[in-house]
TrEMBL record:
Taxonomic lineage of the native organism: Eukaryota, Metazoa, Chordata, Craniata, Vertebrata
Membrane topology: Peripheral membrane protein
Provenance organism: Astyanax mexicanus (Blind cave fish)
PANTHER family found in the cross-reference section: F-BAR DOMAIN ONLY PROTEIN 2 (PTHR23065:SF8), PROLINE-SERINE-THREONINE PHOSPHATASE INTERACTING PROTEIN 1 (PTHR23065)
The protein's name in its UniProt record: F-BAR domain only protein 2
One term under GO cellular component: plasma membrane
PROSITE patterns: F_BAR, MHD
Length: 692
């Protein structure tokens, strides 16, 4: 019992030992919370790695007899990732319980401090009485010894009488403190016994509560291990059930070319007249067309010799080329076996008669005009609908909107372009993405994320002259890569065509409507004749998000609001896996509104307090893997209030990155005629918020 071990002592400091031991309980609770939080980080990282591994399994070859095995790996790895993420969820809930206990513990300790105030007073009394008693005893002994010394030395009676008075007074003081000590000791022992028992009850309750938390922690980990063991056994069973015969059977059923054997072929006598007649018939050729373009009349077909008035060639407007005289065209003759008969050398060859009419000013059709207003109407005002049921908090995120507007950059080639039309023309591309996120407490499952992006092409001003001087400039085509990570792609339908029938889900081919592009650039040149380059928004897209794993900066905020003070902590963690390639977050700013009449603020690191707006602002250096703690840290602040308590508010964060994207999307030019002089990538925070 505490009352048996902490009552004695030279300085009666048992009370101090027990009180500080109680305060150490709070420290232990917080350290346990930190330990579990670190375990959460480890489990979350492992789960994210497993999810990434599962995705890679789906990208492996789907050909051959081994292909179905990858499905087994993928499913098993996805379940394993889910198990660890479920452990993360449980431990996050446990952290909340620990934090709740820490708050309750603080209240209980404050109440106990008030209750044991009288004991502290009794401790101070007995300490002061003990010191006074010791001094009176020393004075009494000193006076008595002095009287005895004078008596032995034969001092006068008068001196002995004076000394006797002092001895008598010292004796009375000494006796009074002995009596006072007895009274104080009784009160001290009574109160100290009660307080020692109170401290013991608090410690027993604390240890019991800590053991319950550890028991919950242990059960959560044990459940996860059991699930992992079951998953492993399921994987083993699936592999055992996947026999060689079943894999061979799947290949035969899915890729089989037929069970019937080819029948016999008998010799047939040649009918010369029939073969010659069939060979002489003109063959019909199926025209090659590109989706998104008008299907021009196949001029190589002999089924019709008429030319439609509305037909165009190479994207040129009607009447750009004159009519072609097909009646006098050189239609080849064939012999009896179907071979062309070569004309004699001396015969005058027949030729096509082609008339090329000059381009009339402002003769383009309406569909080839693309004004700035039309582009904004077709692209800028599009709103993406949610793909899932992103929640009650979805109202806190913005609709599809362009947050970062930066030019694609000037071409590194000559500008204005002075190259010949047969040389590769320089263009630049820019990918600009915006990440919107909402964090709720420390629960990663409640994180809402929305990532959108823009692709912009930039043309040097000199390219317009080449486009307008050429009757049919080379078609600008490109391949958009890593499109499997995009949830939606919205091309500029005035300028861009695409092939929607592609089988490769990770790429998509696009080509520009060159007449419409030329008209758009010419109009921009007329409006801004001094500009060295012109930007064209060609498409927008929305990125598939994976919750908190898609955010470059993870956040968790904690508030403790009291009548006179408010404590705030913002935990952040840099997540390089969310971007490609890994890059730093620059100009990071954290803005937190705090009400309740803030009179003073103390913060680590230093923040700026704006009294007019009642907001605290942290400005941080670049955050990256090279930062302290690999980009993880905390912002802490204590606010003194005149009109508390504060109400927890939503904080906002701003940052940007140059050189990376969150989607990993990229482009590659296809064909000749153009070269990519600059590929610029950037992303920035949109509405990036966190609540407790």
């Amino acid at each position: 019992l505490f009352c048996l071990y902490f009552l004695q002592g030279e300085k009666n400091n048992g009370f101090d030992v027990l009180y500080h031991n109680m305060k150490h309980g709070q420290i232990s609770s917080k350290e346990l919370s930190d330990f579990i939080r670190e375990r959460v980080t480890i489990e979350e990282t492992y789960s994210r790695s497993m999810s990434k591994l599962a995705k890679s399994a789906s990208n492996f070859s789907q050909l051959g007899t081994f292909a179905p095995i990858w499905d087994v790996f993928k499913v098993s790895t996805e379940k394993l990732a889910s198990c660890h993420m479920e452990l993360v969820r449980k431990l996050q809930e446990l952290i909340k319980e620990v934090q709740k206990y820490v708050d309750e513990q603080a209240k209980a300790h404050k109440k106990t401090k008030e209750e044991v105030a009288s004991t502290l007073e009794a401790v101070q009394n007995i300490q002061s009485v003990s010191q006074a008693l010791q001094k009176s005893k020393e004075n009494y002994n000193s006076k008595t010894l002095e009287q005895e010394r004078m008596r032995k030395e034969g001092a006068t009676q008068r001196d002995l009488d004076k000394t006797g008075v002092k001895v008598k007074k010292a004796t009375e003081v000494y006796k009074s403190f002995v009596e006072k000590y007895a009274t104080t000791k009784t009160e001290f022992e009574q109160k100290m016994a009660e307080t020692a028992q109170k401290f013991q009850d608090i410690e027993e309750s604390h240890i019991l509560h800590m053991k319950e938390i550890i028991q919950s922690y242990s059960c959560s980990v044990e459940d996860t291990h059991k699930q992992i063991e079951e998953l492993h056994q399921e994987f083993v069973n699936n592999m055992e059930n996947t026999s060689v015969e079943s894999l061979i059977q799947k290949l035969a059923e899915s890729k089989g070319t037929g069970k019937e054997r080819p029948g016999p072929i008998e010799f047939e006598e040649c009918n010369v007249s029939t073969v010659a007649t069939e060979a002489a018939k003109p063959r019909k050729r199926k025209p090659f067309t590109i989706p998104g373009r008008r299907k021009d009349k196949d001029t190589d077909s002999t089924e019709s010799t008429e030319v439609e008035a509305t037909n165009t060639a190479n994207g040129a407007p009607p009447d750009f080329y004159g009519s072609i005289d097909f009646q006098n065209a050189n239609v080849p003759q064939v012999d009896e076996e179907g071979f062309c008969i070569r004309p004699e050398e001396e015969d005058e060859r027949r030729k096509f008669h082609v008339e090329i009419k000059p381009v009339q000013p402002n003769n383009g059709t309406h569909q080839h005009k693309a004004t700035i207003d039309e582009l904004k109407a077709s692209i800028g005002n599009i709103t993406l609908s949610p793909s899932a049921t992103d929640d009650v908090f979805v109202g806190k995120l913005p609709t599809f909107e362009k947050r970062c507007e930066t030019p694609a950059g000037t071409s590194r080639g000559p500008s204005p372009v002075t190259l010949a039309s047969q040389d590769a023309l320089p263009i630049a591309v820019a990918f600009t993405e915006s990440v919107n996120a909402y964090f709720k407490g420390a629960d990663p499952s409640k994180c809402i994320v929305k990532i959108t992006g823009d692709m912009t092409l930039s043309f040097p001003s000199g390219i317009i002259k080449i486009f307008t001087s050429s009757p049919s400039p080379a078609v600008l085509s490109f391949k958009l890569k890593n499109t499997s990570k995009l949830e939606q792609i919205l091309p500029n339908q005035h300028l861009l065509h695409s092939d929607s029938s592609q089988s490769d889900t990770n790429t998509r081919d696009f080509w520009l409507n060159m007449p419409a592009l030329t008209a758009y650039l010419r109009k921009n040149s007329e409006q801004n004749p001094t500009s060295s380059y012109y930007n064209v928004d060609v498409l927008k897209y929305q990125v598939c998000s994976n919750g908190i794993q898609s955010t470059p900066l993870n956040l968790a905020v904690y508030w403790k609001c009291g009548p006179t003070t408010t404590d705030l902590r913002v935990d952040y963690r840099y997540n390089p896996e969310a971007m490609q390639p890994h890059g730093p977050l620059s100009s990071v700013q954290v803005l937190v509104p705090v009400n309740g009449g803030v009179t003073n603020m103390q913060s680590i690191p230093n923040a700026i307090w704006n009294a007019d707006q009642n907001k605290s602002l942290w400005k941080l250096n670049d955050i990256s893997e090279k930062s302290e703690n690999e980009g993880s840290g905390s912002l802490r602040a204590k606010f003194e209030l005149s009109d508390g308590p504060s109400i927890p508010a939503t904080l906002a964060v701003q940052f940007f990155n140059e050189g990376s994207t969150l989607s990993g999307v990229d482009m590659e030019l296809v064909g000749s005629g153009y070269r990519l002089s600059l590929n610029k990538k950037r992303f920035a925070s949109g509405r990036y918020m966190a609540d407790c």
